[in-house]
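Bug #77: duplicate submission created two jobs. Keeping one. Sequence:
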Amino acid sequence: MSKILIVEDDKVISDGLKQALESEGYQVACAFDGDAGLYKIKTESPDLVILDIMMPNMNGFEVTTEVRRSGDSIPIMVLSARVESQDKVRGLDLGADDYISKPFDLDELLARVRRLIKKQHAVNECFGDFEYIWKNRTLCQSGLFIQLQTKERLLLEFFLKRANQIVSREQILDSVWGSDYEGTDRTVDNLVVALRKKLGSKHVITERGLGYRFVTKL
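Kept job's structure:
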């Protein structure tokens, strides 16, 4: 199930979008200002961000800049009442993948969401002699299928989205088990051990005192 983060300070719009996206089968989280949105992008690892521009604390342009500066390639869809061409150009130049003006057609927005998520998962991920096929969420090594348990697959997908970045155990817990799950560091460490048994030890690096880093090139 793909996770979408809505960063929108208008609760009426946010609630309406959340309901529509959940009815399409997506898992949805919400933030109501730029600071909270940036924090959730870093900690919850969504598959797509729907981002307003005019918000308190940090506007959408600033959020986009910070996300791209960190090296995160997560798809960003701007949804804004700012309809001037220069605003659209600025948003896209800063790294947004799409820009939709308010008021918007819900069916069109949902179609664009599907396109961005499909595009994100269209390219297979290769690391070492492994290949992860996003379309059917399977892992192969030198052409041979590798069986992954559900949590192992979710952890691998989390790592692939954050390749070469240090991630904390808390981030992994929130992404793989959900923010309401009361797990411990040992919960994460045990799952990492299980994944390492299938990938080998070289791709998942322990960063002492910080968490883990997944490397794609050895």
